[in-house]
């Protein structure tokens, strides 16, 4: 199946940011021919997810959280949270993802927003992650990674729209947003999404 066109589009909850996104009414696995292949991650980066949108909005509204600090965006996808951190005045923002195509998309999106992302960073002051608790295996891995980051870095923030594998006991909620989402992706038009600080 050929990929639908990708268009530079404003992020619904954070219109200060534009991302190269799939705007056709398709779901994630429509882009992979309906298949999941473990050797090739699905293109999560082609969509802006609710957790990332909420976390981006939070950083734009509370720039003091990241201003002048080194920030690491784990599982960056298209980079919406990393870009928000940069726009909010972070001293340095690094974006990482298991999918090299996502990292490339994040850098492409950063350039479209006139900010720059670092390729790598030292120990960050703030670690952010949007919508990373979407399966049992990934949730377990991310929980361990974020707990280690909390011990090393101090501040860990996540955005999550109530995915079934979110380990709420590890976090305290700092904000909540009603986030517009593509119905083809989430089977609803909005998701109530929390921004959470790791305890």
Question: Could you characterize what this model shows?
Answer:
There is one protein chain. By secondary structure, the chain is an alpha/beta fold. It has a single domain (6-198), classed as 3-Layer(aba) Sandwich (Rossmann fold). 28% of the residues lie in helices and 25% in strands. It is built from five helices and eight strands. It has helices at residues 50-61, 80-87, 100-112, 136-153, 183-186; strands at residues 6-10, 18-22, 70-74, 92-95, 126-130, 155-160, 171-180, 190-198. The strands form two sheets. The chain has a six-stranded mixed sheet. Strand 1 and strand 2 (18-22) form a beta hairpin. The radius of gyration is 15 Å and the shape is globular. The relative contact order is 0.17. The model has no long low-confidence stretch (mean pLDDT 91).
